[in-house]
UniProtKB/TrEMBL annotation:
Residues 1-183 form the Mannitol dehydrogenase N-terminal domain. GO terms for cellular component: cytosol. The keyword Cytoplasm does not apply. Keywords: NAD, Oxidoreductase. Residues 194-335 form the Mannitol dehydrogenase C-terminal domain. It is an enzyme of class 1 (oxidoreductase). This is Mannitol-1-phosphate 5-dehydrogenase. InterPro entries: 6-PGluconate_DH-like_C_sf, 6PGD_dom2, Mannitol_1_phos_5_DH, Mannitol_DH, Mannitol_DH_C, Mannitol_DH_CS, Mannitol_DH_N, NAD(P)-bd_dom_sf.
């Protein structure tokens, strides 16, 4: 079985590549990073290092690479021949991937089914990829399958001697829509008939929680997650944020309060992993995406505000996000320039689609933070 995976980054090598290798797939990584692809083709193997005391190593071998900027013919041939196509590139890059795969996918014949799965931090990311593909190729036949998925494994920015090796947390969960999947299922993957509860629970617990640590932690002057998690006030407020997203999740879905509390506890213990040094500017990257209406802050916040339920911790979180700066992150720079030129209310309307009373609450909190900072 042949897999083509777009994005030879942290999740690509440290999570998806490892699961596919364990399932016996021949893996071809596709990336725009020429150095990474050259190294993959040279070494054809790497280690996944588990972030726990023993730092055990799991070997992945027989991998190949394609540079999507220069090897376009090779890429087209690989897409025509693959049994599985996966991505872990960032949800905003999916329209670019669509341009590479739409042509060769439309040339595939009905006797050769293929699964196409986006593995990104976004609700129903594969649907976004499918939409972009179909806009180019027109409807594809029933042999091209587009299951949505949820992926959960914390993989920080890497500092390994061998740049192909990748350190990951021990925990991982990959959940895929069962009905949309064709053929033999992957071992180590959970298949479910309705993905919505899983993807929302993951995004609005793991990713909301992590993003809160990034934005409040940065506000307090920390630079890594483990440093920030030693701050008792931050952990208290993190729990308050997750109590609000838990209220959303247990109201909208069938999770019981006990189940969700256990899930939250497990996630907080993952954030405290002392063997995983994770930079706050990685976890907080792309604040414009993270403040967008369907993402980890505004989705639960808008619902709770609309239903008149407690939401002040998420309002605080939005204010910390709005105060966040990182000169290296183009989205953080764009955010701050927009706020400076047009103000908070206009920013919330434009990027978060938040207006009215909720926008007022967030702006008040943002202004109070500004006042605190300037007077301390
Ligand atoms: N790192 C983590 O802990 C987790 C990340 N995710 C999600 O996985 C996705 C990837 O994240 P990471 O692996 O952390 O990022 P990363 O930055 O380590 O890897 C992304 C890779 O995609 C490549 N890329 C960018 N544009 C491309 C293109 N047009 N064609 C092919 N490759 C391209 C980059 O060169 C890079 O190697 C994101 O959507 C992220 O939200 C999901 C769960 C956990
Ligand atoms: O990859 P994104 O969406 O920018 O956000 C980073 C998040 O993804 C994770 O890497 C894993 O889901 C978390 O560590 C963090 O919450």
């Amino acid at each position: 079985m042949k897999a083509v995976h777009f994005g030879a980054g942290n999740i690509g090598r440290g999570f998806i590549g490892k699961v596919l290798y364990d399932n016996g797939y021949d893996i071809t990584f596709v990336d725009v990073n020429a150095e990474m692809i050259d190294l993959i083709n040279k070494e054809q193997e790497y280690d996944v290092i588990i972030a726990e005391e023993a730092k055990s190593r799991q070997h992945v071998s027989g991998v190949k690479g394609i540079n999507s900027m220069t090897d376009t013919d090779k890429l087209q041939a690989a897409i025509k021949d693959a049994d599985l196509i996966t991505t872990a590139v960032g949800v905003n890059i999916l329209p670019i991937i669509a341009k590479s795969i739409a042509g060769p996918l439309s040339e595939r014949t009905s006797d050769k089914p293929v699964n196409v799965v986006a593995c990104e931090n976004a609700i129903m990311a594969t649907d976004q990829l499918k939409q972009a593909v179909v806009a180019i190729s027109g409807e594809l036949g029933d042999h091209v399958h587009f299951p949505n998925s949820a992926v959960d494994r914390i993989v920080p920015i890497q500092k390994q001697d061998n740049p192909l090796d990748v350190m990951v947390e021990p925990f991982f969960e990959w959940v895929i829509e069962e009905d949309a999947w064709a053929g033999e299922k992957l071992e180590g993957v959970k298949y479910v008939s309705d993905l919505h509860p899983y993807i929302e629970r993951k995004l609005l617990t793991v990713n909301t929680g992590h993003a809160f640590i990034a934005y409040f932690g940065s506000y307090k002057g920390y630079t890594t997650v483990d440093e920030a998690m030693k701050d008792a006030e931050l952990v208290e407020q993190l729990k308050a944020v997750l109590a609000e997203t838990s209220d959303y999740l247990t109201t909208v879905y069938d999770f019981t309060a006990e189940e969700q509390a256990a899930y939250v506890e497990k996630i907080i213990s993952r954030f405290k992993n002392p063997y995983l040094s994770d930079a706050l500017n990685r976890v907080g990257r792309s604040p414009l995406r993270k403040i967008s209406p369907e993402d980890r802050v505004v989705k639960p916040l808008a619902y709770l505000a609309e239903e008149d339920r407690k939401h002040d911790a998420l309002v605080d979180m939005a204010a910390y996000l709005l105060r966040y700066s990182d000169e290296q992150d183009p989205e953080a720079v764009e955010k701050n320039t927009f706020i400076e030129e047009k103000g908070i209310t206009e920013f919330l309307k434009h990027y978060a689609k938040v207006e009215g009373e909720l926008a007022k609450e967030i702006a008040e909190r943002y202004n109070a933070l500004l006042f605190d900072k300037e007077n301390n």
